[in-house]
Amino acid sequence: MSVAFRREGDDEHLEPKFEIPIPPGPNLVTARGKALIDAKVVELEVRLAEPLEEPVLNAAKRDLRYWQTRQVTAEVQPEPDGSVIAFGTRVTFLLNGKERVLGLVGDDEADPAAGLIAFSAPLARALMGAEEGELLPFNGREDAIEVLAIDSL
């Protein structure tokens, strides 16, 4: 019999659902980031208490596993003093002649549209450890970044 006529069920033709990938490295978070993770876990636990269709239920369970892992592995970092660019600081700088303001936060808290980038991003790594007035290399240019100001988030 041809394989075309053999069908075990609809599930065999669906795309497999994989776990949400955990970013490599430590799970550094700000106090705000930890609160966001905690709120996401509570939100998903409440959602799982509701009657849900199987695909929605499975997706919510997968999301909950991810956020519970992030909750357990979260390492809340102390608030920086603002003397150098570090995790949890907001930095004002010139990049290619344009002034930008970015906060350096954890992977799950990052929101580039809101001016928050992950500490693991290439731009964040280029900024880390710098002081006000310093010129930094980036994208092959030795003086691509000029640090204007450093504040706590």
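^ that was protein a. below is b, sequence first then the tokens
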Amino acid sequence: MFATLFGKKESDLAGSVFKEQFKNTNNAVLLDVRTPGEFRSGTIPGAENLDVMAADFKSRIKKLSPQKTYFVFCRSGNRSAGAVALLEEQGIKAYNLTGGIGAWPRN
């Protein structure tokens, strides 16, 4: 849904690149933008949940630290692409996991 609106960007990273960059970035935050129910069903260890579809998402991202870099994912990469675009509008550095949570390397 969002990816078609925003297209592919430099902030879109494949799974192995996303994971490596996350591990090597100071002040990195792993952000799961799926619904709380999806989050409870399983997420990447250490991820924080911030539902991009929630009515207060835009107000909540205004409270995020611009000193941190956010590595964002969802189920397929579409919602997270939209979330990354909104974070970037706020001057926050963020990366999208293309392909979603399933693209996160297991090793």
